[in-house]
Amino acid sequence: MIKGAIKPTWPGTAAICGACLVGWFVNHEADTAYAAARGVSFLLLAAIAASILSDWRSGLRNLVRSDIFALLALYFLLYFEFLFPQPNFEVFAIFEHVQTSIDMTLAGFVALSLGRHVSFGQWNPLQFAGKVQLKTSDYVWILLGAFIAANLNQWIAVGFNFAEWFSELMESRFQRAWARGRYGDLSALLGELGLLGYLVPPLAGLIFAKRKEVNAFLLIVVIVCLLVMLFKGFSGGTRNVLAVYMVGFMGGYFLVQKRLKVATIAVTSVIVMVAFFFMAKYMLEFRNIGLGRYIEEERYRPSYRSFHQQYQGGYGDDKVTTYFVDYNLHTMSRLVAVFPEQFDYLGWNLPFVAMTKPIPRAFWPSKPEGLKVGMEEAIGAEGMTVAATFIGEAYVCFGLLGVIAIGGLLGTICGWWNQLAVQLHAPLSLAIYTSGFFAILITMRSLMFFTTAILPSLALLVFARILYSHQQSQ
User: Fold this and answer.
1) Angle between helices 66-78 and 400-417 (to 10 degrees)
2) Which of 150, 297, 390, 441 is the least crowded, having the fewest Cβ atoms under 10 Å away?
């Protein structure tokens, strides 16, 4: 078993709650929307860092927790970009609505931080996963099975022509041969197996941690599968997918180590973060046109950017070094402006759509297509994909009370999921645990995808249950 508790410390949570309280005063004393957001961004960053340092007292393994990744992901989505100058933000922002949105985010951080302390006592229905006995080479075959299943629909779409498959990966994700239509069919059902690809990085991390127990050939197979998934994540232009792959690999690798060294974790984490921020910057530039066209037209060159600015213009000072995430705070402020003034709160409509999302339309042709009032429609952004984090979605459903309730619920789920990390002697249990990072990180961006994002972890749990029952019967 792991020495020390795998749970948050109260001093760490107090630091976050205290920062949110101070942030409320900073928000309401600020003169501009940008000043309010920037002030809160530094406060929350310092508080999360203090919370992590407090948790570190229980050991390094106590830092590989789902709730920590949830807090970091939420911070990245909402406030990370405000650590950098944002000359464009004031062009779009309405101060009053941004202030209300900041208040909501602070309530969400407090609820998430407190919810993770909910105790379940001795109740742990997932203990069976820690009793399954597997060799390290078995995990290679599980990884390979997940890799094949995840890509099978794409291979069928290109007739198993792998050169064409690579070419398609260089296209925009919406123009690829296997791009899903508006309505699901049997091919879309097969495409849902793509979610199993999220099992590859944590399994690869686990196998690398135990690489001395597998032969060189199997290790090469694992490396190839991992690199392909990382390339798919990068070429797709979806930053949260690439982030989940990286976090999953690191979680799988570090959790099963017998001894953890601060220097190793620190250096690895810095390298991965720098690599991600560097790649994410370019992913923003090619996600709508495809990596192939981006390279072909040499859009990465400074000369292209200068030409683009000279003849197409733009807001703000382009000589200012900045970093763009998604301006989710701005999106949230636009939702605040229309809910409930112009549109009624959605109530249980969004949770219902989210719960039914995993059901293929091939099995339920009349399944509701979407929300009764889509967020894109509400803010006049039809034809675009709008994300406002779980906080924005909770608000359009139930208002501020919804933000607090859903934030607390997600924190509780993270705390419960952390129980799997206690079973250090059970690699399968840890693989299931790290695979759950995908669902947690994606849910910070949107509640709509939690039920589908958790499917890979549920698949591993079902597999573990079958193996456990089989081994017990022998």
Assistant:
1) 140
2) 297
3-state secondary structure 226-248: HHHHHHHHHHCCCHHHHHHHHHH
pLDDT in the model for residue 314: 45
Tokens read off for 316:
């703000």
pLDDT in tens, 168-203: 999 887 788 877 554 445 566 667 788 889 899 999
Say if CB 15 and CB 54 are below 8 A apart: yes
- pLDDT averaged over the chain? 85
Mean predicted confidence (pLDDT) in 26-35: 93
The tens digit of pLDDT for each residue in 438-468 reads: 889 889 999 988 888 888 888 888 888 888 8
Backbone angles phi, psi at 430, to 5 degrees: -70, -35
Q: Give the pLDDT score at 162.
A: 92
- Report the 10 Å Cβ neighbour count for 150: 23
User: Which amino acid is located at 20 in the chain?
Assistant: C
pLDDT band at 2 (very low <50, low <70, confident <90, very high): very low
Given this model, what pLDDT does residue 185 score? 53
Tallying the residues shown for the chain, one arrives at 474
